[in-house]
Design a protein that fits this description.
about 300 residues; 10 helices; 9 strands; four-stranded parallel β-sheet
Length: about 300
């Protein structure tokens, strides 16, 4: 049987341990912080032991040898190994907050943790930005997931949904979000739905979402909603084949409205159904399951890796 290898990379504090735990629960043999120099030997070993599903986390702790990773992944693909790469990301402000609350040390930081976040912040921000540069090439060739505003349990669901998809062709990810909480950093294309009629101002619809039938019926009464959906679909129809021919594994299309509850959710649900018969599709709604802006009880869980 062919070997399936999941490579987890990303920013320190973005949730790699959370992702590995999800994969371990799903039956993968997981290894954290494997040095890139040992990747080929490790794969050979697990093949000899007839393992079929393996997950490996690599990060900036192996900074000196990270440039070797793309070449080694190409070598493994040539040997028939099925590889899926996932890159976990977060905003700099989010990472600073997580480190400040946990008082843990960034792998690239030369300072010991201090009691005052203001003292450590300049050096910490510099370390985070240096890390982004070192990991930029790995991010370019992976499916990125922005963990800034999601719970660990939501990240686990995202990871499990990605690894169950068939490999070897493009996956189209539709994601709804709220502009008031920022644009997802994992988006390849962003569309703005804030100009559309808003059910938030209808008393009977305010507490519902774009997945509920009364809201769907509301949007059906407004031709401009269907017009925007048609324009997005035409754009994707025009370019998806070219993206797939360029060996892209994932394309994330983010659609935002003010609160991420009605307009963007409706469009994401409809576009997912529209494209499901031609492409492998995933549907995400960042705000429907998002945590509050502050993470008083979950910061440390993100910082285990």
């Amino acid at each position: 049987m062919e070997l399936e290898l999941i490579l987890i990379t990303g920013m320190s504090g973005s949730g790699k341990s959370v992702a590995l735990n999800a994969l371990e629960d799903a039956g993968y043999y997981c290894v954290d912080n494997l040095p890139p120099e040992l990747l080929l030997q490790f794969v050979k070993l697990v093949q000899e032991r007839q393992a079929t599903r393996v997950a490996i986390a690599m990060d900036v702790r192996s900074a000196a040898s990270l440039p070797q990773v793309p070449e080694r992944l190409r070598a493994l693909r040539n040997l028939g190994v099925v590889i899926k790469s996932i890159f976990l990301d977060s905003t700099t402000d989010t990472l600073v907050r997580r480190y400040s609350e946990s008082r843990r040390k960034h792998p690239l930081s030369q300072l010991d943790p201090t009691d005052g976040a203001a003292v450590q912040r300049p050096a910490l921000v510099e370390a985070i930005e240096m890390e982004r540069e070192l990991l930029a090439d790995l991010r370019e060739h992976a499916q990125a997931i922005d963990t800034s505003l999601i719970r660990p349990s939501q990240l686990q669901r995202y990871v499990r949904s990605l690894v169950t998809l068939p490999g070897g062709h493009l996956t189209l990810v539709f994601e709804s979000f709220a502009f008031k909480r920022g644009i997802p950093s994992d988006a390849d294309y962003v569309f703005d739905a804030r100009m559309l009629p808003n059910p938030h101002y209808e008393p009977d619809l305010k507490a519902l979402t774009g997945r509920d039938q009364p809201v769907i019926a509301f949007f059906a009464q407004h031709p401009e909603v269907q017009k925007l959906m048609l324009h997005i679909a035409q754009f994707l129809d025009t370019w998806l084949d070219s993206l797939a021919n360029d060996n892209r594994s994932y394309v994330t299309v983010a659609i935002g409205c003010t609160g991420g509850q009605h307009r963007s959710v409706y469009l994401v649900e409809e576009l997912t159904r529209l494209f499901a018969d031609r492409w492998t599709t995933l549907c995400r709604h960042r705000e429907l399951d998002a945590t509050p802006e502050h993470f008083p009880s979950s910061s440390f869980s993100w910082l285990q890796a």
